[in-house]
Amino acid sequence: MSRHTFHALPPLRHAVRRLGAANALPVETRARLVLSVSALADTVIQAGYGVTLESSRTCATDRSSSGGSPGAGSRCGASRGRASGDGASGDGHGARNRAGDGAGAEDETEAAAGVPRARSGDGETAPAAAQGASDVAESAAAPAANAPAGSTAAAGSGFLAVTLRTPAPVLAPPAGATLLLPAEVSPDAATWHVPLPAGTPEVRIPSGRGPDGATTGGSGRLRGSGPAPLAPLPASAPDGNGDGTATDPATENRLLEEELRVALARVDTLAADQRRLTHELAETNSGVLALYVQLEERDEQLRSAHGHILRELEDALRPPPIAVDGLELAVHYAPAGTDAPTGGDFYDWFTLPDGTVHITVVDALGHGVRSTRSALNVTHAVRTLALEGHPLKSIVARTDEILAPLDPELMATVLLARIDPASGDLVLANGSHPPALVVRAAGGEEYLEVRGRGVGYPFPGSERLLHAKLDEGDLLVLYTDGLTESRRDPREGEQRLAESARRHRDRPVREIPGAIAEDMHTVILHSDDTLALAVRQTPRSR
């Protein structure tokens, strides 16, 4: 184990950086170790204390068996000896002594016999014994076979244990900071166990030189193979570190440049990954968008097909205009929404045995299939009662009596009309439905109002019958409230309806209901089913 005491951050960083480089640590790991040691040592040094840096080698098996505690286990493939002395022997065969930090000294025998000339950081060769602190680094270049017994030999993979100690229990990471390289931290020590590449020779903390050229701390061998060897510390380097050590600017700059290159390479890699992920995300989003478009198109196709089927079913339930001599009939129906193309606005027309034409207009409460079923029940009940000969005035009340037990929630408005094609006589019964509109061929229009209450209402039935007469060319318009309440104002809607019917009365009768509906729906504040029927009195054929 080697140790050295520091009272300033620059030499501490330099020592850790050289230690990492000499042990062939990956540049990124080395940089993380330097920054982590500096982060812990900074507050201690600012408080006026010195910090002691120790390094040792442990085998993987030794560390696992000792629980990873600092200093546990033996150094991989290393043997220790003890010697005394104050410097490095000039002939390369003596023992090097490392002065301690006031707590004693630890001597280690490092045989240098047979060590060839090592190459320094600037590419020049120099005798190993004449290089001071850096010749310790260069001597590791000698092959393990040439090293005598007792020297540090290449070993298998293990861990580099780097320990930072303080004389007082003041060691703690800065508030809110996270160490870039995790460590085992206690109040007076922190230890990093860094995995070493296979075949890395043991290297301890590199020493510096003072102004007098004497080594001031550290011992051990630096790696001489693999990365470029470290440059020797200049013999006359100024002090300036507060602990008697001197750093080598050339070596420091080279190591910093290595770390910067690795950092920039990492940035480039991350930028390339970001570009790749952005491209992949764009392609994914494009594919998802295309899928959404396809799903929306498919959904629209399904809705359209669904609506088409429902319209066909509803058209099958809605009777086409009947052919009657002396009358022209037409109808227009539009549901409240295309996704539910059926509703509660229904009609029925048929010829009675006496030759009169019966017309039923129903508006059942609600929308969709349920309201369609309710409206169909009403029209079927009315048809049955009318064909059985029940008086027109009683049909609304009788319909309520029939359907109330079957559908207690049913509510529907009903308008009943009887027309004699031969005479033009018109009879109306009403149950809460909007009044019929008559547009006279001679000019003018009028609403034919009859009081009454619809099916499902309290006291259902028409209060009376209204009798009127259609002259040749007169137009009768029957409708549901979806036509006149499109602006939420029934009176204003009735006025607009009269104006539209007067404007279109001379058109072919099959076009009139649709034209009126188009006029009435120029402004729609709420959607509702729309039903419009047109009946025009015409000359009878002879």
Automatic annotation (TrEMBL):
Ranges in coiled-coil conformation: none
Keyword Cell membrane found: no
Short name of any one Pfam family annotated for the protein: SpoIIE
Keywords assigned: Hydrolase
Nucleotide-binding found in the keyword field: no
Biased composition annotated in UniProt, kind: Basic and acidic residues: 486-501
Source organism, top-level taxon: Bacteria
Stretches with biased composition (Low complexity): 62-86, 224-238
Region annotation Disordered: where it falls in the sequence: 55-135, 192-249, 486-510
UniProt-listed InterPro entries: Bact_Sigma-Reg, PPM-type-like_dom_sf, PPM-type_phosphatase-like_dom
Residues covered by the PPM-type phosphatase domain: 324-537
Name of this protein: SpoIIE family protein phosphatase
Source organism per UniProt: Streptomyces chrestomyceticus
